From TrEMBL, chain A:
Protein name: DNA-binding PadR family transcriptional regulator
The entry's keywords: DNA-binding, Transferase
Record-linked SUPFAM superfamilies: Winged helix' DNA-binding domain
InterPro entries xrefs: Metal_resp_DNA-bind_regulator, Tscrpt_reg_PadR_N, WH-like_DNA-bd_sf, WH_DNA-bd_sf
Record's keyword annotation contains Lyase: no
Organism per entry: Cellvibrio fibrivorans
Top-rank lineage group of the source organism: Bacteria
Length: 114, 316
């Protein structure tokens, strides 16, 4: 398998999980750059060109609320989970736990066979 | 800052006006945060190169602007199979209509302008492509985001074509060419019905009397073949009843053509004193007789082939 193909599959795998990670991080308010830093510290490296539009899309869907605040002499837009986002995060989180458990079992069996 | 302003301007240009201020304001704040981080790490102002690197990492302005907007596709992946099929039918339709137009023009004036035919086919093909693509763009990006229709909704496994062999599929292109050629010969045989009388009066040759006696019957077979061709374009697969019908059409046409090929003359001079007689009429008659004979033989063979396929299908 080529590197390019692997990278494509890796991105596909990460795409859905990133939404979950962003929603999870925004239980506390963050502005764009601080959100990226927090995700990086949690081990999820996401480039700005992907993160900022993703946050905007989630806000457009009503899952995040936002407000402009002045800080360190500059304005920043802070995002936080909306009530709708909280409900969705709960469902998605449960779904993720289930999937993770099942896929984990499958991978364990595969590794055992090998 | 000037570089950032230029970047923001380029992003803004690619955004719809109603979202321009909101997105660029936020994007600028994010860029300034990135530069702030460099300032803290390096304990100095970011260099022009570092500012440019931050912008490059964000992406091309058009790419960045597009990523903030709902994704748009010329044709969605869901609709693409239907789009390809529509283009396929569109091209065949253009080809058939072009050939019919060419045939009528040839039979009317006797001129064969192949460049005009090619030009017409290309132009009509491009218009068809543009219209079909435009329609599918609207279907793929419906106003309000709600799909206008779902083409894959009305189906059931029981209604799928009863096809078990690959040859049972009827090719649209082949069917289109058959349809166009049937129509051409039907028009040719019945030129007196549609050709202006002044053109008929200027003709140098006409079908011989014994041939003319068979024209109504041959036309009848061709009309049945045309209607059957339309049926085949809708339901593009062979079944035993359809193969029986095809065999009967081929057999009927073959018998008539083989009979006609035995006549001494197919074409004769008109008794028009104002038109010069055709010098090579005898040679033309020989060629036509041979042509009609071999087409008749081919149709006879095809009728036999249809019977063979009926036998094949009856065994499954």
């Amino acid at each position: 398998m080529s590197e390019e193909h692997l990278e494509k599959l890796r991105q596909e795998l990460r795409r859905g999980i990133l939404v979950l990670a962003v929603l999870g991080s925004l239980r506390q308010p963050h502005y764009g750059y601080s959100l990226r830093k927090q995700l990086q510290e949690a081990g999820i490296d996401i480039d700005e060109g992907t993160l900022y539009p993703l946050v905007r899309r989630l806000a457009d869907q009503g899952l995040l609320s936002s407000e402009w605040q002045q800080g360190e002499g500059r304005e920043r837009r802070y995002y936080q989970l909306s009530s709708e986002g909280v409900v969705l995060l709960e469902s998605l989180g449960a779904e993720w736990q289930q999937l993770n458990k099942h896929v984990g079992k499958i991978l364990e069996v595969e590794n055992g066979n090998n | 800052m000037e570089t950032i302003d230029r970047y923001m301007h380029a992003v803004a240009q690619a955004l719809p006006e109603r979202r321009r201020d909101e997105i660029t304001r936020e994007l600028r704040a994010n860029i300034l945060d990135s530069l702030e981080s460099i300032r803290e790490q390096q304990e100095r102002e970011p260099t022009a190169g570092e500012v440019a690197a931050v912008l490059v990492a964000l992406g091309h302005p058009q790419q960045v602007a597009a990523s903030f907007l709902p994704p748009q596709q010329l044709v969605s992946a869901d609709l693409f199979p239907l789009y390809k099929q529509s283009l396929h039918y569109g091209v065949i339709l253009v080809f058939i209509l072009g050939l019919i137009q060419f045939a009528i023009s040839f039979l009317n004036s006797g001129s064969m302008d192949f460049i005009d035919l090619f030009h017409g086919l290309v132009m009509k093909g491009l218009i068809t492509f543009a219209v079909i693509t435009g329609l599918f763009y609207v279907f793929s990006n419906p106003p309000g985001g709600k799909p206008l229709f779902n083409p894959y909704q009305c189906w059931s496994p029981e209604k799928l074509p009863p096809v078990s062999r690959s040859w049972q599929r009827i090719s649209s292109a082949e069917q289109g060419v058959d349809f166009a050629s049937d129509l051409f010969f039907l028009l040719l045989l019945n030129y007196s019905f549609w050709m202006p009388s002044e053109h008929v009066s200027r003709l140098a040759v006409m079908f011989a009397d014994p041939v003319r006696e068979w024209i109504p019957l041959l036309s009848g077979v061709m009309i049945v073949s045309l209607l059957f061709g339309l049926w085949n374009m809708v339901y593009q697969y062979w079944t035993i009843p359809k193969l029986v019908m095809e065999a009967l059409i081929n057999l009927g046409a073959a018998v008539i053509l083989l009979k006609v090929s035995r006549f001494e003359q197919i074409l004769v001079h008109t008794d028009n004193p104002s038109v010069e007689p055709v010098e090579i009429l005898e040679l033309a008659n020989h060629i036509f007789s041979a042509g009609v004979f071999w087409v008749g033989m081919w149709l006879m063979f095809m009728a036999g082939w249809n019977l063979y396929r009926i036998w094949q299908l009856s065994r499954t």
